[in-house]
Amino acid sequence: MAFNTNNNNNIVVVFDFDKTIIDVDSDNWVIDELGFTDLFNQLLPTMPWNTLMDRMMKELHDQGKTIEEIKQVLRTIPIHPRVVPAIKSAHALGCELRIVSDANMFFIETLVEHLGISEYFSEINSNPGFVDEHDTLRISPYHDFTKSSHGCSRSTCPPNMCKGLIIERIQESLAKEGKKKKVIYLGDGAGDYCPSLNLKAEDYVMPRKNFPVWDLISQNPMLVNAAIREWTDGESLEMVLMGVIEEIRLEDEKEKLLISAENTCKMHTIPVGINVPIMPRALRVSQSS
What we know:
GO molecular function: inorganic diphosphate phosphatase activity; metal ion binding; phosphatase activity
Active site: 16 (nucleophile), 18 (proton donor)
Order of helices and strands: EHHHHHEHEEEHEHEHEH
Structural class: alpha/beta
CATH architecture of the domain at 11-24 and 79-127 and 144-252: 3-Layer(aba) Sandwich
CATH class of the domain at 11-24 and 79-127 and 144-252: Alpha Beta
Helix content: 40-55%
Number of strands: 8
Pfam family, one: Put_Phosphatase
CATH superfamily of the domain at 11-24 and 79-127 and 144-252: HAD superfamily/HAD-like
Keywords: Hydrolase, Magnesium, Metal-binding
Binding site for Mg(2+): 16, 18, 188
């Protein structure tokens, strides 16, 4: 994947995938469209979600469903017509774009390639998904919770992924590179709450209104350090995102003007300790009568 390296700003936009970039849950969409909903619902109470999705992919294969059929179903996923333009516009404005999702790499990569936007993302963080030697799609957890906990104690994070820890890693990598970038985080689910709490005061969070992350943030907005900008659908996602990018640009311009003004003032200030020649004082001439 490639991304715009000619950045004129300092913004990293992080997108969730399900119900943010796309309008549905990709796991449910594939299962429902291929006719395996009943089996999925039957097994759901018996195993973790990632384990269930891996099991369902085996069932699809055993029932004669091919990888190409899965791809064809993914290509029919509904997406608001303004989401792709929003992604392209953010990239064109110099933003670095990333995805952090609890879907899986195979689903995400298939769809972003179909939409023609894969090159706009510098990084995708999701559960591994790959086709094995038997042409079966295998799904595994981002964090192997069977061996250890990912360490986050928040109940909103599933055992296989803490998006807050991923955001922390992104923040640390940017800091090591000496990049002072502002993060804009877009999401909808309960799993997007933890990364929202890890954002800094100069960052922005864009929760989807009337979805779980918005409900959680609304309970106590003071817990979120970042500026909160809600959105409802693809059209408002585009409008709000473009507005936030412009807001950051104006803030940066203002900061540059202030620094420039301060430097100008310093140039006109006489440094202490430098000998400056003193002009002789004019003498008053007394006039005799």
